[in-house]
Write a structure and sequence with these properties.
about 280 residues, Glucose Permease (Domain IIA), Cell_wall_metabolism_enzyme, metalloendopeptidase activity, Dup_hybrid_motif, coiled coil, M23ase beta-sheet core domain-containing protein
Length: about 280
């Protein structure tokens, strides 16, 4: 109640006692209204939180339903691929071995070329063009991050790869069909498929912080080339495509100015660039 209202109450009243009584009634009404407004505000905030929780649960259910559809589709694709391979070999062990040897040789040649290109790009990389290292630059691309292989010249990489270098990190993403998410806001540069070699089905996203991320060995896409995506947005599902022995996500971080799509025989267009350690930009595990 403001001063003008209080004055009007006194002027209109026949006695001081009556004025005080009326003022007290107005003050009580005003206090009750303020309490009711505060209560309504509390209810509004509570309803907002509950609505957000329901929306989150709905999105989670929708993601899981889509994941189940993807898993079924992937299983059908794998059966079709196995049937095709079987028809090619006609159960001939020698022919099957020849196909595998050919794939291995192609993969090794592609891997050697890519590592030679990327090693030079890393050596020429200007560190001043990169964002400051920190835990909030990128988000984890899997719902529950579990690191299975680190970046660089690790002991495993030196034994497993001729180049002795692992250009990204590997994250557990099994079984096939686990949802994968954009690590930051950006634009989809490419959705590609290298067949049975290199990255298989993959998504390449250029971000606004001068970094570009690659998501490899996917089973299916949920985005298209040229599409704008937000941090945490579903971009596709995990798989075992390309040069991969088990379902997982191979996650690569590039310096954006260095990224290019190079054509390789038997693989098509493959992303290459100056690779960086993803753990320098991801939240700590």
């Amino acid at each position: 109640m403001d001063n003008e209202n209080l004055l009007m109450v006194f002027l209109k009243s026949e006695s001081l006692a009556e004025s005080i009584a009326e003022a007290k009634v107005l003050e009580d009404i005003n206090g009750t209204l303020l309490k009711q407004v505060a209560r309504l505000q509390e209810l509004r905030e509570k309803l907002t939180v509950e609505l957000e929780q329901l929306t989150g649960k709905k999105q989670s259910v929708e993601t899981e339903q889509k994941s189940l559809v993807v898993k079924k589709s992937v299983a059908e694709d794998q059966k079709s691929e196995q049937d095709q391979l079987f028809s090619q070999t006609k159960s001939e062990e020698q022919k099957y071995k020849e196909i595998l040897d050919d794939l291995e040789a192609r993969q090794q040649a592609i891997s050697n070329d890519i590592e030679a290109i990327e090693a030079k790009l890393r050596a020429d990389q200007d560190p001043n063009a990169l964002p400051t290292k920190g835990t909030n630059v990128l988000s984890w691309p899997t719902a529950v991050p579990y690191l299975t292989q680190e970046y660089g010249a690790t002991a495993f990489a030196q034994q497993a790869y001729k180049s002795g270098f692992h250009n990204g990190i590997d994250l557990r993403a099994r079984p096939v069909g686990q949802p994968l998410y954009a690590a930051a806001d950006g634009t989809v540069l490419a959705t590609g498929d290298n067949g049975r070699v290199q990255y298989g089905r993959h998504v390449l996203i250029k971000h606004q912080n001068n970094l570009t991320t690659l998501y490899a060995h996917m089973s299916q896409f949920a985005v298209t080339q040229g599409q704008t995506v937000a941090r945490g947005q579903l971009i596709g599902y995990s798989g075992n495509t390309g040069y991969s022995t088990a379902p997982h996500l191979h996650f690569v971080v590039y310096a954006s100015p260095s990224v290019l799509l190079k054509s390789f025989v038997g693989a098509g267009l493959v992303p290459v660039g100056s690779t960086l350690n993803p753990l320098d930009y991801l939240p700590a595990l």
